[in-house]
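Hi! If you just cloned this repository, the fastest way to understand the data is to look at a raw example. We've pasted two of them here, unedited. The first protein comes first, obviously.
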Amino acid sequence: MQKTILIVEDDSNIRELLRLYLEQEGYKIEAAQDGQEGLRAFKRIHPDLVLLDLMMPVMDGTQVIKEIRAVSKTPVIMLTAKSDTFDKVAGLDLGADDYITKPFETRELIARIRAVLRRYGENEPPKKLEFDNLIIDKESYNIVVKGEKMEIPPKEIELLYFLASSPNRVFTRAQLLDDVWGFDYFGDTRTVDVHVKRLREKLQDVSDQWEIKTVWGVGYKFELKNE
């Protein structure tokens, strides 16, 4: 189900840049240019997450989050140019779920959004996934193929588990890099290609009911053939 993010930011350049990047990531975006407009939008659309600037005209972010927390537990990530520890603590004390200072790396912000959404109601996949001739056990880091345990490096297991936990969903290489390796990983997307290639070699001809499929120009997905 598509998630809705409300951006409350008075800087039009930052607001539209965030809209562009987040829409590319598959989110539905609503935007407001000040705190009052943001509160009205919040009450109207009931977003899944709010990106909230701290310093704004009409009504600042601290007042906005107070109003939101009075009626809702919707996750809020605060955006601000302030980097002082006092401001960070104040924002978190008001009920913010995370805090990121400007200028920020887009990859880091997107990774933080995903992490916060995962903590709020997105169903966690089971630790053990079972498919035809394949068991992926994330808890014990075991892969069982046709009843036999297979030796596979941890990062390949994490990549396979991540793809298989959302069957038929397409992930870009950048998404996989952020979610499996972490936004602070300094490698490039070729890392994903190498790991997918190794997984395919190890899982070749295991089943005709699923495969790690390349979606040209986009990325990869764990495809279930009968769905």
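Ok, and the second one:
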Amino acid sequence: MYYPLLRSRQFELITLRELANENATQGFVMPIIEPVKETHNNLNLAFDVFEKMGQKAYLIVNPENGEMSGDGTHYLDYLEKKPTGVFLPAFRYRLNGKYILDAIQDYNLNEVMIICSNEVGSDNSDFTSVATSASVTAFNVGDPDRNRSLKRYLFKLGKIFIRLDDPFERQTRNSDFLSIGAHPFTEEHLYYKEEGFYGFSDYTVLPSEYIEGGSTPRAVVIHLTYLFKDKQIWIRHFTSTTNDSIANVQGKFAEAAEKAVKYCHKNNLSNTAIKELISHYDEQHYPGLGTIKKISMKNHILVVVDYLRNK
């Protein structure tokens, strides 16, 4: 099972809604959504689609970043008002065991996921009090191989254990991707079961760091992953070439899209995300930076699903 971790910004949620509407992810993908806005409009749209289409997701109720970050009750109250079984509760653990256990009791929570770093000590009583709670059924740990004692402890609990990796190599400037050739992106989908994990998790083709807003870029990049040698997932960064100013973003998109479309045609790569990219290119239509990001995220999730369906 694949657990992409995405912030609940507009185009991340549009990505997940489209995939659910296409019945593309059910049974293979369970998103983890980290809300960053106080308002719930986009979350509600996603919830309605998920409920209709039978797609579950975890919702982080104490997000690390955003307008309502920290150990509060804002998203717990939101979750309490929703029908159960669609959004499941997830907590970021940061030496906040009492907060988590109090929330589990006060809100009568079950099927709880704990997301934590690999720096947590398996002998930490604050953590073990949470880990052994009957309501806690899943753990998502960043790069768990760096803490073997924690890894062994969680395996012994016999609960759902998911590894979280951060394979996307963020660059200082978009134009820096121009000199980066195709390279391996991830192979966790190949080995997670063999290593005893229930599932694997990443940030799709986005950086793990939270970046609020953005500015007009000097370069436009389309990040596309694909199955390659021995079913590894590789990535290519199709980058515009006229990157000396922020002018003519539409033209920059055309440059990047031309490279991507030619590569997809040459290598017979196709899914609904790639078809949308080709359509924008053929119609000479610039869809906006948010849609470009959506296409990259959606393609990556579909690449993972294609492997999981056919392995």
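That's it. A detail worth noticing about the second one: The first helix runs from residue 10 to 21.
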